[in-house]
């Protein structure tokens, strides 16, 4: 009873005089009938119309019939000349435009308003009209009025027309393009907004034409534009030009951006500073003036300005920490800023620029308010700590403690994952931190609600745990998971246990007992894994252990799924051969992710199961009947350009390698809008010895602007030694002239033509798939020295070991193992371990011992089950 | 390094919202189909935004990949959202315009009850400030002029001298008090 009273009282307070409380859709739509009364009562109708718009804004959804009915009722209101009512009608039309039908009936009313004398109507009428118009009506009846409106003296009208034209480029780009002269005229007005809008429209019309944009920018940078918004826009366009044309920082364009740092509007100054910071080419000298204006902003009284400045400085600190040190004092004073975002950014910036001695103090400062900031910013902090750990490895204990404290706090999955990521990176980078890091992670999984994270950590424990000094201490943590957690985590824990069994002989008996218990589990997957591992471990065979427990299989999962599906569709006597499935390449996304991690991006990551490049290609190839017969490609190379980037035809080539075949996929784009190409194919000449063209799949039609593919299928020579070589290529096609606007050919006449392409190379790397080995030594021994080939090379062109390592990896296209791709600084010798799979599923292992002396000397040992492959690899290096 | 270099475009604003002091929507508009396509997502975002901002008077926050600038008065919260790479000061200028024009429309009585009474004009004002994500006008004076105030929606030329003087006085008083 009391509760009820309080409720009703609250209702009164809230709803006192609030006509919009508890509106029902049906009642409101009923009321819309009032619109039909004559004469129109403006006050009442405005009220009802407002209600309709309000419920729409609150999320009510109207059906097409409801919307159309309301719309028609609304058209009656054009009889009234009440200014506000009329304006509300425009608003209603715009709101209902996406749902209702037969909108065109108000076209003439709106056109009258748009060309009438009442200024309060005109601008709004233009915008309403453009929201209901389509390409045809636009062209036929209102184009003339739009052109006039763009150059109208009334700023509101001109702005409305320009903004609407920009909206309309979505469906009537060609029509809007014809208004370029009007837009050009509008850019010279005095009105701040008109200038801005006109620049936007002009740029949009011309942005595909580099030369026109250059001219536009050259002209505008010389004139002094009044509008700060337009200047911001101009700065962005200029930067884009600078980046694309790759002109140096001495150019006129850059001078313009720099001059904007002295503009009187803060908005423009900031935009210019931001732009300079974000340019790829900027060095310390160019940065200095930008940094000093940002430094001034740091002490502004406006939070937004401080935020913007610190955020940009933070970005500078990632690439040029030295440039920011000058601002350290200002940043220090922002640590206690009331806006936590500003404080966090200030601290993380300081962490990047500061000295080792200040780390402790700053960390203490952060921990005092870390609970108050949003997850996004906590991630920023975590990333800063990660960078810090790599910079000052000695500070790892302080930082690690801090991270583990953060790990125990509340937080979402993304935040926790970023902490775990950081700890994992630290463990990998810094052997000293390994034990403590693993201990923290162990503690964390004791109380971790995110299954995916727990699984990852268990996997890491399985990988790293057996190689620590005291592997036994991790067993307890792992086995606890088996007892307490859900099925996926239990399964991961079982796999981790098996790793310990395989690698630590003294723990083997215990692990066997634990695995035996796991065989009673209620979940199938857990039981299966336990049984599988028990059987292997009971064999006591080191080779078996290595092959089936320590090493992971690297089959490409989507392709495996497809192959298995096909296998079950066609029952056969022969067992399924897993070797027909291509191995998956190590995805580069892992590295890319690390690189991107530096960026403060707060975009929520959408979790999509990303397919590797190969798998997406394989998917496409399977849809082409002639190629489907070949099976799945073993390896697909990245696309290589065979033409310059600004020619009539753009051709890229992707090489797909199958066990016996080689498929060239030529991705062609026609950049001439007055031509239609037909029967496009690529003729290969000269062919290297031994290669035979098996089929040619031309592309039937290649219209302007579309990327289409044609294929050439070759068989590899039987002798492996000559399976590398260089191909000459010519694109052949027949051309028809066509109308640029419609893309339809003018006549049936066509003439044959050809186009020279650059040469194509097929190398060892194309035929090799990257596959990582977790335990290289074991695999090396397993391969045996019967198939070993050894040779010594002098790589005279290489100056450093690092360079040599990078080149060898790229040349062979193999995966570096056990972090041997990183050369420790100051060493004069290095051993590079590579592994891969050659087409035909031959495992290839390479050990390259490098020594630095007048260039780099390399002793290369190759082991492979097929001697021919070893020979090919060794020869190709020479 | 996704889209750090901003594609030069006029589509700057991702959304504008006015919430009451319980975090409920009074008016809200989202202009980018890729940002919160459904009303449910929008309202969830608004709740989240409100929770993060109603206590701390900090003016700017980054949330769900958006930079949000905000301002509050009595029982109203005004928000302007843009991409996280957008120039924060541009967003701020739009927020100021939104707030100032509504404040002028409501004759300095910026509170929920008054805004509800003048909802039609406020809707028109929001429409005048931003059209489909493009900043249409960022000067509050121009906005107010274009949305036609009710009581004295007689054009300037037709007002009596006394009326004009009265308005001028009021304007002056408030600009001094600011």
From TrEMBL, chain A:
Q: Where in the cell is it found?
A: Cytoplasm; Golgi apparatus membrane; Cytoplasmic vesicle, COPI-coated vesicle membrane
Family annotation (Gene3D superfamilies): Coatomer, gamma subunit, appendage domain (2.60.40.1480), Leucine-rich Repeat Variant (1.25.10.10), TATA-Binding Protein (3.30.310.10)
> Which Pfam families has this protein been placed in?
Adaptin_N, Coatomer_g_Cpla, COP-gamma_platf
Domain of life the protein comes from? Eukaryota
Domain (Coatomer subunit gamma C-terminal) ranges: 765-877
Keyword Transferase assigned: no
Q: Which InterPro entries match?
A: ARM-like, ARM-type_fold, Clathrin/coatomer_adapt-like_N, Clathrin_app_Ig-like_sf, Coatomer/calthrin_app_sub_C, Coatomer_g_Cpla, Coatomer_gsu, Coatomer_gsu_app_Ig-like_dom
A GO molecular-function descriptor: structural molecule activity
Biological process annotations from GO: endoplasmic reticulum to Golgi vesicle-mediated transport; intra-Golgi vesicle-mediated transport; intracellular protein transport; organelle transport along microtubule; protein secretion
Q: Locate the Clathrin/coatomer adaptor adaptin-like N-terminal domain: which residues?
A: 24-537
Task: Look up keyword Cell inner membrane and say if it applies.
Answer: no
Which residue numbers delimit the Coatomer gamma subunit appendage Ig-like subdomain domain? 616-763
Q: Where is this region: Disordered?
A: 1-23
Annotated membrane topology is: Peripheral membrane protein
Q: Which keywords appear in this protein's UniProt record, sorted alphabetically?
A: Cytoplasm, Cytoplasmic vesicle, ER-Golgi transport, Golgi apparatus, Membrane, Protein transport, Repeat, Transport
Kindly state one GO CC term assigned in the UniProt record.
endoplasmic reticulum-Golgi intermediate compartment
Q: Which residues form a coiled coil?
A: none
**Basic and acidic residues compositional bias: what residue ranges?**
1-12
So what family is this one in? Answer: Belongs to the COPG family.
What does this chain do?
The coatomer is a cytosolic protein complex that binds to dilysine motifs and reversibly associates with Golgi non-clathrin-coated vesicles, which further mediate biosynthetic protein transport from the ER, via the Golgi up to the trans Golgi network. Coatomer complex is required for budding from Golgi membranes, and is essential for the retrograde Golgi-to-ER transport of dilysine-tagged proteins.
Which PANTHER family does the protein's record reference? COATOMER SUBUNIT GAMMA (PTHR10261), COATOMER SUBUNIT GAMMA-2 (PTHR10261:SF0)
Listed under subunit, the entry gives: Oligomeric complex.
User: Can you say what this protein is called?
Assistant: Coatomer subunit gamma
Organism of origin is: Cloeon dipterum
